[in-house]
Automatic annotation (TrEMBL):
Cross-referenced SUPFAM superfamilies: Radical SAM enzymes
Record protein name field: Radical SAM core domain-containing protein
GO molecular function: catalytic activity; iron-sulfur cluster binding; metal ion binding
Keywords on record: Iron, Iron-sulfur, Metal-binding, S-adenosyl-L-methionine
Region (Disordered): 199-226
Cofactor: [4Fe-4S] cluster
Domain Radical SAM core: 22-143
Keyword Iron-sulfur part of the UniProt annotation: yes
Pfam family, any one: Radical_SAM
Domain of life according to the entry: Bacteria
Keyword Ribonucleoprotein: no
Length: 226
C-alpha cells in the first residue's frame, strides 16, 4: 500500500479516534519500518494534510539505525516495541535474530537522540532451552544497561516453547516436549479447560495463549518529567 493510500485510511478513521479510550492508532505491521522511504513519506503526507496523530507500532533495531527512520517516526510515535530477545551475540545468532547487541545499543542511542527512547520498549526473553544461568544474567545485565544509559523501557519475559517453532521441533525430536504438555493446567498456563479455538481461560476469564510471560520494567523518568 502506498504512503498516500495509507494516510487516506488514517484520515477516514481519524474522526472516530475520539470514541476510543486512548485516542491512538495502532499500526499492526511488524515490517512498517522496513521501507525507509515509505516511513518518511507517510510522516510527510500527514504533515501536509495537517493531521496530528499518535500511533503505537513495532520496529526492528536493524531498521531504526538506517537512514532517517528515527526522525520520521518521532512526530507520530506514542509507543514503540522492539524485539531485542537476547543480551548477548551468541544467543541472537542461535535464534536467527539477524542483529547484534551493538545494533541494539545503537538503535537505543539513536532513539534517545530524537527523544523517543522513553516511548520505546525493548522486549527480552530469558530461559531459551540452550541458555545457562550465566546466559540469562547476561541478558538481564544488557537490558539494564539499555534502561539506565538510554532511558528505554524493558520487558523481561520467560521463554515458553511454542508448538510449531523450530526450537519446539528440535526438542520434540529429542522426546523432551509433546503437545500433551498443554492438556492440563500448569504454572505457565494456570487455566481450566480448553476452548474450541485452542485458547485457555485464565482465572479472571480472559483468553490466554501459549507463549512468553514476564514483567515490564519502567525506565527512569525523562528529564523534566520527574
Amino acid at each position: 500500500m502506498s504512503a498516500g493510500n495509507f494516510v487516506d485510511r488514517l484520515e477516514r478513521l481519524h474522526p472516530y479516534l475520539k470514541r476510543t479510550r486512548y485516542k491512538v492508532f495502532s499500526i499492526i505491521d511488524d515490517l512498517y519500518t522496513l521501507d525507509i522511504q515509505r516511513v518518511a513519506d507517510v510522516t510527510r503526507e500527514l504533515k501536509r494534510r495537517g493531521m496530528k496523530i499518535q500511533a503505537t507500532l513495532d520496529a526492528r533495531a536493524t531498521d531504526v539505525i538506517r537512514g532517517e527512520v528515527c526522525e520520521a517516526l518521532a512526530p507520530i510515535t506514542n509507543h514503540m516495541l522492539i524485539g531485542a530477545e537476547c543480551g548477548y551475540d551468541e544467543g541472537l545468532k542461535k535464534i536467527a535474530k539477524g542483529c547484534t547487541t551493538k545494533v541494539l545499543e545503537r538503535a537505543a542511542a539513536m532513539l534517545q537522540e530524537v527523544g523517543l527512547s522513553h516511548k520505546c520498549v525493548c522486549s527480552f526473553v530469558i530461559g531459551f532451552p540452550f541458555e545457562t544461568r550465566e546466559d540469562c544474567l547476561r541478558t538481564i545485565e544488557f537490558a539494564s544497561k539499555l534502561l539506565v544509559k538510554y532511558n528505554v523501557r524493558v520487558y523481561l519475559q520467560r521463554y515458553n516453547t511454542i508448538p510449531g517453532s523450530a526450537i519446539w521441533e528440535e526438542l520434540a525430536g529429542k522426546g523432551l516436549v509433546s503437545i500433551g504438555l498443554f492438556h492440563e493446567p500448569t504454572v505457565d498456563f494456570p487455566s481450566h479447560g480448553v476452548l474450541e479455538n485452542g485458547a485457555r481461560r485464565s482465572p479472571r476469564g480472559r483468553a490466554t495463549w501459549p507463549g512468553s510471560w514476564g514483567c515490564g520494567v519502567a525506565s527512569p523518568a525523562p528529564r523534566g518529567r520527574e
